[in-house]
């Protein structure tokens, strides 16, 4: 069987399984399994595939047909132009979350201390550190998450992206219980669980069946963690410090109101590229 024939067969299986981007996923998995560049694979379309590659590729396609996310199958993804390890223990970083990173970068100053709450893979905090470093800003990062397995991934990602150990620390615990009482930050950033419990069953299989429930479930109305964090964050922010959230598309008004009720100033709701509310931020 040639590479062309193998890929066409894979596309048919993926389409039958309801994969929307069947052609894209088939190609990316073939690149992953064959360890070829896109250009080389294009030139080798008529070449016969080895039995080992054909067998391994079939296994990966079967995983994707089971709706396991592509990022989990290959074990990594890209976020803000940076590489990140992923597993079933963390949410796969989403492009929508890049809006949060871009907005926080605008308010970071040299020497700022950052807390990434509900850190997961660490993609938000690590991206802020790395991009801030490129802009010659010297920052420090604490990341906190309830999941020890997620923090293990975050620590690997910090090392992979070359963050200095003395500037980056990760803590396991329930929100602010993970950090010292007298610890204060210039910026607290968080992408907490925000899907209402009843809505989770309506999510795509890749999400509801293969990503960690604890990173998705925002309790009854999706605002449970925003309430907790907003109420407690003031005790861990320096004067003028920023609290910055990713939110669900329909939560902008509610989260902004929570922040204003807690006396945050200049509270703003920012839309993503699709025009949906995506970020809420304000400062003390």
CATH homologous superfamily heading of the largest domain: Vaccinia Virus protein VP39
Low-pLDDT parts are none
| Number of separate strands | 9
Beta-strand fraction estimate: 15-25%
Helix content: 25-40%
Q: In CATH terms, what is the architecture of the largest domain?
A: 3-Layer(aba) Sandwich
Shape: elongated
Mean pLDDT comes to: 96
Main sheet: strands, sense, barrel: 7 strands, mixed
- Terminal CA distance reads 64 Å
CATH class of the largest domain: Alpha Beta
**CATH fold group of the largest domain:** Rossmann fold
Q: Which structural class do you get from the secondary structure elements?
A: alpha/beta
Major sheet: order of its strands?
5-4-3-6-7-9-8
The number of helical segments is 11
Overall tally of domains: 2
Please provide the ordered H/E string of secondary-structure elements.
HHHHHEEHEHEHEEHHEHEE
Radius of gyration: 21 Å
Features:
alpha/beta, Rossmann fold, 284 residues, 7-stranded mixed β-sheet
In short:
The protein has helices at 3-16, 22-34, 38-43, 51-65, 70-74, 98-107, 123-134, 148-160, 205-208, 224-233, 252-261, and strands at 76-79, 82-85, 113-117, 140-145, 168-172, 185-190, 237-246, 265-271, 277-283.
Question: What report would you give on this structure?
Answer:
- With about 280 residues, the chain is α/β, with parallel strands linked by helices.
- It has 2 domains: about 5-65; about 75-284, Vaccinia Virus protein VP39 (Rossmann fold, 3-Layer(aba) Sandwich).
- Helix content is about 40%, strand content about 20%.
- The chain has helices spanning about 5-15, 20-35, 40-45, 50-65, 70-75, 100-105, 125-135, 150-160, 205-210, 225-235, 250-260, and strands spanning about 75-80, 80-85, 115, 140-145, 170, 185-190, 235-245, 265-270, 275-284.
- It has a 7-stranded mixed beta sheet, with helices on both faces. The chain has a two-stranded antiparallel ribbon with strand order 1-2.
- Strand 8 (about 265-270) and strand 9 form a beta hairpin.
- The longest helix is centred in the first third of the chain and has 15 residues, at about 50-65.
- It starts with a helix and ends with a strand.
- The mean pLDDT is about 95.
